[in-house]
Write a structure and sequence with these properties.
Structural class of chain A: alpha/beta
Number of helices of chain A: 12
Largest interface: B-D, 48 and 48 residues
Order of helices and strands of chain B: EHEHEHEHHEHEHEEEEHEEHEHEHH
Largest sheet of chain A: 5 strands, parallel
Distance between the termini of chain A: 41 Å
Oligomer: heterotetramer
Strand content of chain B: 15-25%
Largest sheet of chain B: 7 strands, mixed
Strand content of chain A: 5-15%
Number of strands of chain A: 7
Structural class of chain B: alpha/beta
Helix content of chain A: 40-55%
Strand order of the largest sheet of chain A: 1-2-3-7-6
Radius of gyration of chain A: 20 Å
Radius of gyration of chain B: 19 Å
Distance between the termini of chain B: 43 Å
Shape of chain A: globular
Bound molecules: thiamine diphosphate, magnesium ion
Order of helices and strands of chain A: HHHHEHHHEHEEEEHEHHH
Number of strands of chain B: 14
C-alpha cells in the first residue's frame, strides 16, 4: 500500500505518462519498420525518466525483483514440461513481468479484488500465490487451488486472495469487474477492483459495456491492459484504429494512462496512483502497459509466421528483468552476488515446486461429477 | 388466502425478499420506472436507486455485472426485458455464471437470478415471443424454472433468490395478467425441482409447463366429457428435472403427450420423450407424442399466422383423442 | 445528391456543428432542471445559424417538407388505429422528422444502402416508400413489402431501395453496416451505407464492434444516431458517461459530428457532407442528431412516468415541422396557402393508404410455413 | 483417389471454391496467418488480404459483418476460432442470419457459412471442447452440418458455400488430423441433408455424428465378433434432419442407441429419440437408449476427468451389449 505521503506527485504522474508514451513509440517503430533500432539505448532512456522509486523501499524492490525472477522461471519451466509431454499445453507471459508485478504490487492482497487473465503468473505470485500452487494447477493436479485440474493451465483463482476464477473466452471477465466494484462501493468498502486483459480483448463488446458501466457509476475499477502488440498473430493495427489502447478511454470520459510496461518502477508508481484515485472515488481508470511477449502465444503457436526475429531481438534488449536488475544495481539495492544468490534460491524453489507437483496425484475420475451445483440443495 | 396475478406474485415475492435481505438488488432496463411489465413497480421508492439499478441497454453487461456483484457477496436479480434479448448475454450465462462453481472446485459461487418474460400469443412477433428454455435447460450448472401458477411464481422466485446457484427464472408473458388465483399467506417457498401433478387421470399423461400447462388443462377438461381421463403434469422446473414424477405418471397411463410452445425440432420436450422412451418403455401403450410449435421462426405477427403457430387447447385435445384412440 | 460545387464548405460544416451543440445544450438544460426555457427563442436562434440552404433547391425543400408532413400524419394515424383496436401495437417517431428526412435526403435511393431502425418512417418515405406500403405493413397485411405481416410494425425492408430488413433487438443492425460497406468497397462501388439507431443502442457491444471494424478498414459507413434523450424511460445519462454520443467517436479516431436534429437543413447539409466524405474514402463517420420524440416510446408506454410535461412542452416549441415551415415561408419557398394545400393532399394520401390497407387481406395461415429456407434446395 | 485428412479436405474445398468464385471470402481471427488449425494455410498468398480478412477479436462482429457482406452480394465464410467462442455471436446467428429470409418474406437472403471447430478429447478443457449443435440445430432458418469423413468435409463445405441459406459447419477438432481417407477426384458435392448408413446390420442401430461416429464404428466392430450386428448411421447433418433414413433403420433393427458427445440432458440426440419414439414405436423391441456426456460442464481438463467425460468405443460397446441382450 502506498501511504498518502508517498503518493506520486503530479510531476511523478506526468513522468510515468511520458515514459509510457516514449517506450511505446520505440516499440511501435521497431515493429513497423522491422529494423533494429538502438534498443538498449532507448530502454536506458526510458529508465532515465524514472529518477527515483518513491513509494518503494529497497527491500520491497528486491522482493518484487525476486517475484519477477520466479515468474520467469516458472514459465520457462512450463514450456519445458510441455515439451517433455508432461503437460498438454502451456500459455505463458514471459516479457510481461514488469507489467504484472508492478501493477499487482500496488494492490492490497486479499483486500482489493483482482481478475487476472491467462498470462498473469506475475500478478498471482505478487499477490501471494506460490510457485508450488502454480505448478500444481499447471500440471492439472487435484491439489491445485485454481481448478484442481478442471481448467486448462493458467486459469487463475484463489478465493482467499480475492483472485477471481477466470475462463478462456477473451473479454468476459471485463464485465465482472464493475459488478465486483459495485458491491464494494455500496457497502462503503475502499477496495479497488483490477481486471487484466490484452489489447485484443479491447475489441470485444464486453470491453465497451464494461467501461461504459463502470464510468457511468464511477466505480473503483482499474482496467489494466497488457498491450503486447499481438493477439496471437494479429498485430494491434488489426484490432484498433487508434494508436493506443489508452485512447479508447476517451469514449467514456475517463482517464486512459499509458506506461512503459517493461519498467517495473514506472508501472508500480502509475498503478499506485490509479489505485489511490480509485480508492478516493475518482475511478474508473484505464491503464495501458506497453509490453511484449518474448515467447510464442502458446505451445501451439509458431510466432515466426507473423513477426520477425529482429523485432523479437530488439525487445529482448528491453527485457524487464534485465532492466530491473540494472536499476537495482545502479541504485544500490542489489549486488551481482546477491543477484546470483536470489536466482539460486528461486531456482531451488521452482524445482521444488515442479517436483512436488509432479508427485501430486491427479483428480479421481468420478470427482468430475462434483461441484456442478451446491451439495444438498 | 389472497388472489394474485402472476405479475403481482413475482413482484410480491421479490419485494418481500428485498425487505428482508439488504444484499438483494435488481438491475435491468427501465426497472426504476417499474419495468415494462411493471414487475418492479414501486421498488425505487421502497428500496432506493442502489438496489433498483437502471442499466445501459446492454444485456451482456446486465448479466456480467450481476455475476461480479454475486462474486462479491450481493444477491442480484438481473431482469432481461424480453427473453428474445437474452442472446447477447448467452456467453455470460453459459461460460461464466453456470461454470464458476465447477471450474473453481466449489471455491467460487454465483448466486444469481435472471428473470425474463418469455413466450408468445401476445402479438409479439419474431422478437417478442421466443421460447428460450431448450437452450438454457441444457446447461449444467444452471437451473431453469418455468412456473405456471401465481402460487409457484411467488414461491419459486423466493427459492431462486435463496438458491446458491444461478437460476434462470422464466415468466410467461401471456400469463402475467390473464390468470389470478389464490395463493398461500405468509412467507412460503416452492422448491425448485419437483413437478406437480395438476390433474390426475389414468388414460393419457400430458407433460407441459408455462402457458401450455393451462392449455393442456383446458384440453383435458374438454376430453374428459368424452370419457378420456388425462393426467396433467406441470413440470415447473426444467433443470433440475423431476424424472421420478415424469416416469411414474408415464408408467401409470402408458400414453404420453408432451406439449410445448417452442419449435418442435430440438425443443426441450424431446428430452422428456427420451427419458420416457428409455426408462418407461415397457409401460408404454402408444407412441410418445409431441405437440409443439412448427419449425418456423417464433413467431409471425399477423393474427392468422400467430394463431397458426401457437399450440392451444383445441390442438391439444385433438392430439389427446388420437392418442386415446390408439 | 450534392454536387461537388454545392458541397458544404468548412464554415458550413462548422455551422452545422455549432447548431447541434447549441440545440442540444438547450435540450439538456430543459431536461435537467425541468424548467421552461425560452424554447421558441432558442429554436429561432438555432435556425438563425443556418443562413442558407445550399444544395437544396426550393422545390426539393418543399418536397422534403411534404415528406415530413406525411411521416407525421402516417404515424399519428398509427396511434389512432392502435387505439381503435385495429393494430396490436404502434411504435413511432414523431419529433424525429427532420433528423430522418434530412439524413435520408442526402442519400441516393437504391444506390446507397440504408439500415433504418423502428422509428424511421421518415427515412423510408424519403427514400421512396409510400404511405400505402407503410400502412400495409403496419396493419400486418400480406401485401406489405417489409414482412407481409410477419414482423411487428415498423420493421422496415424494401429490397429494391436497398432498405435492409431490420429486427427488434436493439443494436444488431450496427454490425451489418460495415459488412455491407465492405462489399461495396471491394467491388469499387461508390455506395455509402447509412445505419440508424437511437442513443440507447450506443451502449451495446455491437456499437463498439461495428465502429471498430468500420474504422479499422476505413469503410464508407455513416452511423446515424437519433439521440432523443431517452431509451424508453432511461435518460441518456444512464447510457453513457460522455455528454454526447458524438464523443464516442474518439475511441475510434473517427469524426463524430453533432447536429441539431430538429433542423432539417442543418441535418441535410451535414449528412450531405458526410456522404461526400465517405464516397471519397474518408469514412466512416458518426453523426449524432439531437432530437426528441414527442410521443411515448410506444403504444404500451406511459411517458408521464419518467418525463415532465414541461419538458415535452418545451420541445414542442422546437417541433421540426413547425421550424421547417417557418423556414420555408421566411425564404419564400412556401406560402400559408400552399401549406394548407399540401397538408390537404397529404391527408388525402394517408387516408387512402389507411383505407387501402384496411381493405387488404391478412396473410393466409399456412403461408407461415413459407420462406424458412429457399424452396427446393 | 487421393488421401486427405479432415483439415486438408476443408482447406481444399474452400480453396477450390474461392478460386472459382470471386464473391467468396473468409473472415476470422488469425486467418491470414493460416488459422490456428491451419485451415486457411496459404490462402493469403493465393487470394490476397481482401478475401482473407483478419478480424478484430470480436465474434459478434465476425458474424454480423459477414451477414452484411452476404446481404450485399458476397459469399462469406466466417471462421470462429473455437466453437466455445461462438456464444457472443449467438444473437447475430439466431436473430439475424437465420431469420432474414423469413422475416422479409424471401426478399432478403443470407448465404453465409460459419465454420467452427468443436468437440473434445483433445485436452481442451471447459472452453475448448464444447458441443454446440443442440443450440443451433434447434434454429429454423439455419442449417447445421457435422461431417465425420474427409470426403464429406470437402463435399459439404462446397455445398455449404453454394447454399442460399446460412450454414453452421461444425468441424470436429479431434478428427482434423486423426483420420485420413481416400476422397473422390474432381469437383464433387455432398448434399446437405441426407444421412449415410456407414455399416449395415440387423440387430441394433446406432445413430451418431462427428467423432462419435468413428467411436461407434469401432464399437460395432468390437461387438460384431460377439455376434451382434450393428447398423451405424452417420447423421452428417442435424438440420435438416434425414428422418427417412433414421426411421427406416430404426424400423429395421427395432433397437436404437443414440450416441453423442454433448451433455446428455437436452442434447440433440433427444430429438432423434423423440422422432423414433413417435414414428417407429410399433417396430421397437427395446427401450431407446442414449449414451452421451454426463451433465457437467464440457469438459474437465485432467486426463482422468476428460476420459471420464468422453463417450468412447468401450462405453458404446457396453451399451450395445445391454441393448442386444434386452
Ligand atoms: C472470445 C474468444 N475468441 C478467441 C479466442 C482465442 N484466443 C485466445 S487468446 C487470443 C488472443 C488474445 O490477444 P490479447 O487480448 O491481445 O492478449 P495476449 O494473448 O496478447 O496477451 C485469442 C484470439 C478466445 N480465447 N476467446
Ligand atoms: C437488445 C434489446 N434490449 C432491449 C430491447 C427493448 N427496447 C426496445 S426499444 C428500447 C430503447 C431504445 O432506445 P434508443 O436506442 O435510445 O432508441 P429510441 O427508442 O429512443 O429511439 C428498448 C430498451 C430491445 N429491443 N433490444
Ligand atoms: Mg496482445
Ligand atoms: Mg433514444
Amino acid at each position: 500500500m502506498v501511504k498518502a505521503t508517498e503518493r506520486p506527485t503530479k510531476s511523478r504522474k506526468a513522468a510515468a505518462r511520458g515514459n509510457g508514451a516514449k517506450g511505446r513509440s520505440d516499440g511501435a517503430k521497431a515493429r513497423s519498420d522491422g529494423a533494429k533500432t538502438g534498443g538498449a539505448a532507448q530502454s536506458n532512456a526510458a529508465i532515465a525518466g524514472v529518477a527515483s522509486h518513491i513509494g518503494l523501499e529497497n527491500e520491497r524492490l528486491a522482493e518484487l525483483y525476486r517475484v519477477m525472477l520466479t515468474s520467469r522461471l516458472v514459465q520457462d519451466r512450463m514450456f519445458v514440461l510441455q515439451r517433455q509431454g508432461r503437460a498438454a499445453f502451456a500459455i505463458t507471459g514471459q516479457g510481461h513481468e514488469a507489467a504484472q508485478v508492478g501493477t499487482a504490487a500496488a494492490l492490497k492482497p486479499g483486500f482489493d479484488w483482482v481478475i487476472p487473465y491467462y498470462r498473469d503468473v506475475g500478478v498471482c505470485l505478487t499477490l501471494g500465490m506460490t510457485a508450488r500452487e502454480i505448478m500444481l494447477d499447471f500440471l492439472a493436479r487435484a491439489e491445485g487451488p485454481c481448478s484442481g485440474g478442471r481448467q486448462m493451465p493458467t486459469h487463475w483463482s484463489k478465493r482467499e486472495l480475492n483472485i477471481v476464477s477466470g475462463s478462456s473466452p477473451v473479454g468476459t471477465q471485463i464485465l465482472h469487474a464493475p459488478g465486483i466494484a459495485w458491491a464494494s462501493k455500496i457497502r462503503g468498502e475502499k477496495a479497488v477492483t483490477a481486471v487484466f486483459f490484452g489489447e485484443g480483448a479491447t475489441s470485444t463488446g464486453e470491453f465497451h459495456e464494461g467501461l461504459n458501466f463502470a464510468a457511468i457509476h464511477k466505480l473503483p475499477v482499474i482496467f489494466v491492459c497488457e498491450n503486447n502488440g499481438y493477439a496471437i498473430s494479429e498485430s494491434s493495427e488489426k484490432q484498433m484504429s487508434v494508436k493506443h489502447v489508452a485512447d479508447r478511454a476517451k469514449g467514456y470520459d475517463i482517464e486512459g494512462i499509458m506506461v512503459d510496461g517493461n519498467d517495473l518502477i514506472a508501472v508500480y508508481q502509475t498503478m499506485a496512483w490509479l489505485v489511490e484515485e480509485c480508492r478516493n472515488g475518482r475511478g474508473p481508470k484505464l491503464l495501458e502497459a506497453k509490453t511484449y511477449r518474448i515467447v510464442p502465444h502458446s505451445s501451439d503457436d509458431d510466432d515466426r509466421r507473423y513477426r520477425s526475429r529482429e523485432e523479437l531481438a530488439d525487445w529482448m534488449t528491453r527485457d524487464p528483468i534485465d532492466r530491473t536488475k540494472k536499476y537495482l544495481i545502479d541504485h544500490g539495492a542489489l549486488t551481482e552476488e546477491q543477484d546470483a544468490e536470489v536466482r539460486e534460491q528461486v531456482d531451488v524453489e521452482v524445482k521444488e515446486a515442479v517436483a512436488y507437483a509432479l508427485g501430486a496425484p491427479m483428480p479421481e475420475p468420478e470427482t468430475a461429477l462434483l461441484h456442478v451445483y451446491a451439495e444438498g440443495v | 388466502m389472497a388472489e394474485r396475478s402472476v405479475i403481482e406474485a413475482v413482484r410480491d415475492g421479490m419485494s418481500e425478499m428485498m425487505a428482508a435481505d439488504e444484499r438483494i438488488f435488481i438491475l435491468g432496463e427501465d426497472v426504476q420506472q417499474g419495468g415494462v411489465f411493471r414487475a418492479t413497480e414501486g421498488f425505487l421508492d421502497k428500496f432506493g436507486p442502489q438496489r433498483v439499478v437502471d442499466t445501459p441497454l446492454a444485456e451482456a453487461s446486465i448479466v456480467g455485472v450481476a455475476i461480479g456483484a454475486a462474486l462479491n457477496g450481493l444477491l442480484p436479480i438481473a431482469e432481461i426485458q424480453f427473453a428474445d434479448f437474452i442472446h447477447p448475454a448467452m456467453d455470460q450465462i453459459l461460460s461464466e455464471a453456470s461454470r464458476l462453481r465447477y471450474r473453481s472446485v466449489g471455491t467460487w459461487t454465483c448466486p444469481l437470478v435472471i428473470r425474463t418474460p418469455w413466450g408468445g400469443g401476445i402479438h409479439g412477433a419474431l422478437y417478442h415471443s421466443q421460447s428460450i428454455e431448450s437452450i438454457y435447460a441444457h446447461i449444467p450448472g444452471l437451473k431453469v424454472v418455468t412456473p405456471a401458477f401465481p402460487e409457484d411464481y411467488k414461491g419459486m422466485i423466493k427459492s431462486a433468490i435463496e438458491d446458491p446457484d444461478p437460476v434462470l427464472f422464466l415468466e410467461h408473458k401471456k400469463l402475467y395478467r390473464s390468470i389470478k388465483t389464490e395463493i398461500p399467506e405468509g412467507d412460503y417457498r416452492t422448491p425448485i425441482g419437483p413437478a406437480a401433478v395438476r390433474r390426475e387421470g389414468d388414460d393419457v399423461t400430458i407433460f407441459a409447463y408455462g402457458l401450455m400447462l393451462h392449455e393442456s388443462l383446458k384440453a383435458a377438461e374438454e376430453v374428459a366429457g368424452e370419457g378420456t381421463n388425462c393426467e396433467v403434469v406441470d413440470l415447473r422446473c426444467l433443470r433440475p428435472l423431476d424424472k421420478e414424477t415424469i416416469l411414474s405418471s408415464a408408467k401409470k397411463t402408458g400414453k404420453v403427450l408432451v406439449v410445448y410452445e417452442d419449435n418442435l425440432t430440438g425443443g426441450f420436450g424431446a428430452e422428456i420423450v427420451a427419458i420416457v422412451a428409455q426408462e418407461a418403455f415397457e409401460y408404454l401403450d402408444a407412441p410418445i407424442m409431441r405437440l409443439a410449435g412448427p419449425d418456423i421462426p417464433t413467431m409471425p405477427y399477423a393474427p392468422p399466422l400467430e394463431h397458426f403457430y401457437m399450440p392451444d387447447a383445441a390442438k391439444i385435445a385433438a392430439a389427446i383423442r388420437e392418442l386415446a384412440a390408439y
